[in-house]
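Checked the freezer inventory, then went back to the computational side. Two predictions to log before the end of the day. The first one is the construct we discussed on Monday; recording sequence and tokens without edits.
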Amino acid sequence: MPISRTPRDLDEARKKRKINKRRIRNGNRIKVEKNAFARRTGKIKSFKISILLDRVGWRFASIGIITLFGLLLGHVVTNENFFVDSIELVSTKYVPGDEIYRASGVHGMNVFWINPAAVESKIASIPGVKNAVVEFEWPATLYVEVTEKEPIILWKQAGKSVWVDEYGKTFPARQHLNWLLPITVDDATEPLGIDEQIPIDVLEGARQLKTLRPNIELLHYDIGQGLSYQDGRDWRGYFGTGNNMGTKLLVYETLIENLMSRGIWPKVISVVEPGTPFHRE
């Protein structure tokens, strides 16, 4: 059944409808805005959590790597298998192995702290050693090969003996060598030390005399007259120094022949200056 309405009623009804529509629209807008905000908030929270998890994961991984490295380093620096207590030495003729080992300075050292070049330098500084080669083999083996100096003369001065190499440098006489030519210094009061220099002309003269007269077992030396030896015919022959011993020996034998022909037995014959030889009775 129809309901009658007055104009006033109709105006009030329109006002109410407008108000209700406005409320509905406002309510929907608020709801939409709240939902959108909620969605945006959820995305931000999810992004932050993801970043946090990534950071925490990398931190744990870094800590793990550092811990593993620390354990490995601790094992290396404490395990006795990485410490040196001997060396593998290629056999030497003169320098004792224990002297080389002491000079190397590697005893009780961890292999990771050893510098082969530094070890080579230390061993090469041993008197009588030319050079050294050091090689490393895992985990803690050092191979050492030494090149030694060869003695050519045994130098005796003021009660002390040293070896002399081909360059005239002295180094310790470590053993007795029957074949080594000795030279005794007659006018020295102080012994000769290690790494001293012997004049090269003295070495040349001594080696030539020994080559030309293999029966010579001992040479003498003094600064004034150089090299000399006691002739088996009971006199001293003086030869000076240098590499012209062949000429001097020829003059020496010629002078002896002349003296013998005249029945003269000298005590001293000098060919230090082969142009002006002389003798003393």
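The second is the one RB wanted added to the comparison set:
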Amino acid sequence: MTCSSPSTRTLIKAVLASAAVALAGLAQAQAVFKITAIPDESPTELARKAAPLVKYLEHKLGTKVEFTPVSDYAAAVEALANKQVDMAWYGGFTFVQASIRSGGKVVPLVQREEDEKFRSVFISADPAIRALADLKGKTVSFGSQSSTSGHLMPRSYLLQAQIDPDKDFKRVAYSGAHDATIAAVASGKVDAGALNISVWEKFVADKKVDTGKVKVIFTTPAYFDYNWTVHSDMPVAQREKLTKAFLDLNRNTPEGKEILDLQRATRFIPTQASNYKGIETAARSAGLIK
């Protein structure tokens, strides 16, 4: 039997320690924090909005961050429920769907200040359409079927006005995204459309829509909407670190201003699951959740 010398044992320990450090470093290098977002705008716009936020979160979290686009709203729900991503940007309705799908295992962290009192708008290029009642017998486009501001809440307020889209409209269309709804209305493909007020105001500010032709005919009352959500299996310390990163975004810094402008946010504030109970009630009343 051979017996290694003290110097040999010391060398072996040093090699093992170096290997452990190298493996830990490799694991850290390979660890990727993945985020996604409901595809409520074009893929290029979503990527543009995500880029500076990804860079900021990498600095705050000390790990690589990737934006992972998804094909539709349902995919965004499945991605977080199955922990294929670490954080998702949801509308209020998508959050409710993710909560149901995951058995209540998702946690909303922050929302924009604007999301406390969010609104939708109905738009039309038809001069004869001036109010919700004028939509009867017309072709009307929503966004995605799972959109809060592009479908659920507009539908809910229509029902409150005694207008049933499935019975009273000539045809109901789903454009898939807010910007696509604007395009459908502007081109005359549909008579009217409902969408997120934030996207509408951005299009108006950027002069991407002719407001002499396309006009807002109705603005909904306010409701809670978008949020950044994580899986409840995420350690509390990580959740707190993420929340702080968003709350620390400041318009007085170039980085903060760029991110907040792209996110169309004054600032981010904490949120909680109970804020979206009204959304769930509206979805059940509209028959969108059984």
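For RB: Residues 6-30 form the longest helix (25 residues). The chain is about 45% helix and 20% strand. Let me know if you want it refolded.
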